[in-house]
Write a structure and sequence with these properties.
Number of helices: 5
Number of strands: 4
Radius of gyration: 15 Å
Strand content: 5-15%
Structural class: alpha/beta
Shape: globular
CATH architecture: Roll
Strand order of the largest sheet: 3-2-1-4
CATH topology: Diaminopimelate Epimerase, Chain A, domain 1
Number of domains: 1
Distance between the termini: 21 Å
Helix content: 40-55%
Length: about 150
């Protein structure tokens, strides 16, 4: 019996580009951006999965409730953007999030995963920097910057 190793979702260079975008973004804000990528979202819809991951990664615990997550299930062609209470409302509610999702969707349709993630991180980061600019009194980098990979 042969077993095949799943192909990596993002190669090393792509991972480095996305992490660099996260770091650059977070240098301008007290907010946090996490990226979670996996092959399949088989047992729930993408938004439910994003909310589940947000909780399991401890993202509700940021001091200013301004964390965001970009979730992508590559093989299932699903994704979701989720922001904690403060950033969701201050960024403009559903209209902002729908526009950001539409832009990410355009990249994903073209299999431009890295470009889509980088642009989305930057877009969410711009909203975070506008509403939660860098403040030296707030703990820096409350959450890790690396991409989290699921199954």
């Amino acid at each position: 019996m042969l077993f095949f190793k799943k192909r990596p979702i993002l190669d090393e260079e792509s991972q480095q580009r996305v992490v660099a975008c996260i770091k650059e973004t977070e240098n301008r804000t007290t907010g946090e951006v996490r990226v979670f990528v996996e092959h399949h979202c088989s047992y729930m819809n993408a938004m439910d999965r994003a909310v589940e991951l947000f909780a399991s990664l401890g993202m509700f615990k940021t001091e200013r409730r301004n964390a965001t997550i970009i979730y992508v299930a590559v093989d299932d062609r699903q994704f979701a953007l989720f922001g904690d209470t403060a950033i969701y409302e201050k960024a403009g509610g559903p209209a902002f999030w729908e526009k950001a999702a539409d832009r990410l969707k355009e990249h994903l349709k073209k299999d431009e995963i890295t470009e889509g993630l980088c642009n989305c991180v930057t877009e969410l980061g711009n909203a975070l920097a506008t509403h939660f600019p860098y403040d030296p009194t707030v703990p820096r980098n409350e959450l890790p910057d690396e991409i989290v990979f699921g199954k």
